[in-house]
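BACKBONE GEOMETRY TOKENS:
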Amino acid sequence: MASKVRFGIVGTGGIARAHAAGLAVMDGDAELISCCDVQAGRADEFARQFGAKRHFTDAKQMLDAGGIDVVCVCTPHPHHAHPLVLAAERGIHGVCEKPFTNTLAEADQVLEAAAKAGTFVSVMSQRRWFPAAQRIKKAQDDGKLGERIVMGESYCEMWRDEAYYKRDAWRGRWDTEGGGVMTNQSPHNIDFLLWYAGPAVELKAYWANVNHPYVEIEDNAVCVLKFKSGGLGIIKGTVSMNPARRIHGVTIVGDSGATVSLDCWEIPPEQRRTRTGPSDIGTNDIWTIPGEENIVGVSREHALDYGAGDLPNFHAHQLRDIIDAAREKREPAVTGLDGRRVVAIIQGIYESGRTGKAVTLSDP
């Protein structure tokens, strides 16, 4: 591998800028080589802005041109799988925005291609690098929550108006967005829940479009689930809460009696430290670990002061891990299997809501 890990980006819309901004500060560790977008003018503009040497209108052409070690897929959700498979077939590692794929069959296709090629896949779960999120993980690893998680609640409490759905033509439709609040807004908090509580084995759910009649997809969903560990969980997602409250988060109860929470809050634009992010912060609003009753969790003030630390956004934190994984020939901190488990939850929620039956979950 070259001294710099070489990146390509598929899809140059808004979220691709977070990837490019993160890569731009990696000094001698990373280089943006290529980008592509079905809109030629947009790819050309993106390449000029972020210094990519080449730009294309087709992912296959970009990957066939070579010179890439890792590709970041930043397309609408239903178009994640194909470029990831193409990349694996060419020995290129893959990173994609959440959710991993639109269906479990696509997730398995990507994982199979990566396993065959000996490449890795990672799914953007950049909020795992929030100090408040890391603090919970350390407490869990240190045994302060007990031997297992007995209850976990995942929540996404947002507001989306008609203007939001009109911003991009792909929003609000099953065929082009793949789903609503579960597919688009909730993968981060579902990832938190599984990261702390472990894989789930069964769920029962309801979902509906309650007050967004101008779109096809669900705007509210609720789910109960069982974890492999024997613990129980709750997932709640809404884009009907106005104003938004906790845009992502979890509350975790350990068998030691300790309860901790990770609550993600939007930062008003005037309080953001940098233009590229972060747009929200994570806090520990609940922290009742025995013996730590007088210890204050990560507060809003602390989180605002930290921002993204020495990097422009939290995408950069995860990209730094991905660069190291590529160099060290190891799995990244967030794996393709992690992403598949989130997809299994989302698709299980849709299936349960359609059939009225519980859905069994398992790894491939």
Q: What stands out?
A: The domain at 128-308+343-354 is CATH 3.30.360.10 (Dihydrodipicolinate Reductase; domain 2). Residues 336-355 form the longest helix (20 residues).
